[in-house]
Fold this sequence. Notes:
The structure holds two protein chains of two kinds.
Chain A: E1 5-10, H1 15-28, E2 32-40, H2 54-57, E3 72-81, E4 102-107, H3 110-118, E5 124-126, H4 139-148, E6 151-155, H5 157-161, H6 163-180, E7 185-188, H7 200-209, H8 214-221, H9 223-235, E8 243-244, E9 255-256, H10 259-266
Parallel strand pairs in A: 1-2, 2-3, 3-4, 4-5, 5-6, 6-7
Antiparallel strand pairs in A: 8-9
Chain B: E1 6-15, H1 26-50, E2 54-59, E3 64-70, H2 74-80, E4 86-89, E5 92-104, H3 107-125, H4 132-144, H5 147-156
Antiparallel strand pairs in B: 1-3, 1-5, 2-3, 4-5
Helix pairs in contact in B: 1-2, 3-4
Keywords (chain A): Acetylation, Nucleus, Phosphoprotein, rRNA processing, tRNA processing
Subcellular location (chain A): Nucleus, Nucleolus
Family (chain A): Belongs to the eukaryotic/archaeal RNase P protein component 3 family.
Amino acid sequence: MALFGDLNIVNTTDKRKLKNVIETAAHLGYSTVAINHVVNLQEKKQEIGKPTCVAELFTSPPTVQGKSKPIKIITRLTVVVSEASHCNELRTTSPRTRLYDLVAVHPKTEKLFHTACMTLDVDIIEIIMTEKQQFHFKRPPVNVAIDRGIVFELVYSPAIKDSTMRRYTISNSLSLMNIGKGKNIIISSGAEKPLELRGPYDIANLGLLFGLSEGDAKAAISTNCRKALLHGETRKTAQGVVHTMKKTEVPEDKEEAPASKRARTDDP
Amino acid sequence: MVRFKSRYLLCEVCFADPRSRQCLEERAVFSAVRDAIARAHGDYGAACCAVSFTVKYLNAYTGILLLRCRKEHYRLLWSALPFIIHLESRGQRQPCRISSIHVGGTIRTCQRFLIRYNRQQLLRMLPGCQSEEERESVHRAVLSCSLKQLEEEGSSRDEDSD
């Protein structure tokens, strides 16, 4: 099958723990892993800091089980929004959010969910799993989000830890499936310890419990993750066609298009 | 010929504390899985899996586990496995994780997969070897695991394909 990805590994200050979790993910077969920095703007004095330097974590990243390539580690920012003023941080021109590869938003009210689907420049919308959803999903914003390429995320580690959380998780995800028909869904772990991770085939089965069809469940851990990654990459480019890189030695202004984009522009 | 078709789930048990792997017991795993199915799928799940559910093979050194259940209900069992968070053994609760690596229709297919998997694991251990002796022993282990030897032994035994 395609590459598996787990796009939610909670960032901790303890480097050894983080390394353990990433090594476990590589052992289980995940090819891509995203370190998630959660920022809750409601608490005072919380600012979006710089992402952890991935190169410092591993001198040589662990190889993925079953493949010969090392695991790919990217950075991700999740902003928990409960008021409209918090959305200012998520505009394209914001300096800090550009440092991250993926940007996610966790809306707490219906209005914010609507804004996130329609206008905010994010890649992932996280669905509340730890409490009963106060609002119902409506079809128009969800369809707009699917058209824009935004992906909805289901986190499964609360479900593993606690039985009441399991009920909330399943009920919230079932209501999302009713509206969105299972498109653009990813399932990720939200793991803080290595024992909270589960293998990709187990997660595809969990997707069946959450209301996805078999094909959708497999897509949730492979192709939709890749979709989210590409969406994050295109945020750094101009319309997804041109990609600029800073060259350290040569001072001239060089524009380089990544290989996949180059082929597309060459076609008549 | 009417035949009971089963599914064999090959799983790997990982512990937080590597030493507690020695205390792995079949009964503990059996009761843990049965309770997890009852919690996740209720009475229906517990009843479905009670029909033909057994722990066929358990290797305490590598943490490999082989479970058998009926073909109609293997998804119920499979979806309840991620929810197991600890195993009881000798009065202690050890936090653990069960991840499934293969689903097969017969024990022989699972055995074939397990040999390939163990060989892959041995090869992954090679870069981490500290001394030449360790390297040599890993090399020898890799070369010695082959299916032909086992098939010669296995043809003399009766296969249990319930």
